[in-house]
Amino acid sequence: MPKRTSYQVKKNILLVLKERAATYADLERKVNTGFRTVKSNCEELKEFGHVRIDEINKHPSNGRKAHKVSLTKRGMQFLENKHP
Predict the structure, then answer these.
(1) What's the predicted TM-score (pTM) here?
(2) Of 6, 23, 61, 76, which residue is 20 to 30 A from 15 by alpha carbon distance?
(3) Cβ distance 22 to 16 under 8 Å?
(4) Helix (H) or strand (E) holding 54
(5) pLDDT tens string for the chain (84 positions)?
(6) Taking the domains of the chain in order of start, what are their residue ranges?
(7) Which residues contact 60 (CB under 8 A, 6 or more apart)?
């Protein structure tokens, strides 16, 4: 299987977030890629204004610090233009 491009990973992240907000760990499983890849792509999407990243001090399931990623209005518009 050929390696996915950064664009494909970002697109998959946005499509997952279209359904609901997710943590880095959730995205790691749903996009089927590594944690560092998810984190760096989410941070880049944040720079473009497509996602928002919020820090959770105590995650409900494990009590650890986590990051919740959600789609912004701009991100939703981008998806609608690219994937109507």
Answers:
(1) 0.88
(2) 61
(3) yes
(4) strand 51-56
(5) 578 888 999 999 999 999 999 999 999 999 999 999 999 999 999 999 999 999 988 766 777 788 999 999 999 999 888 765
(6) 6-82
(7) none
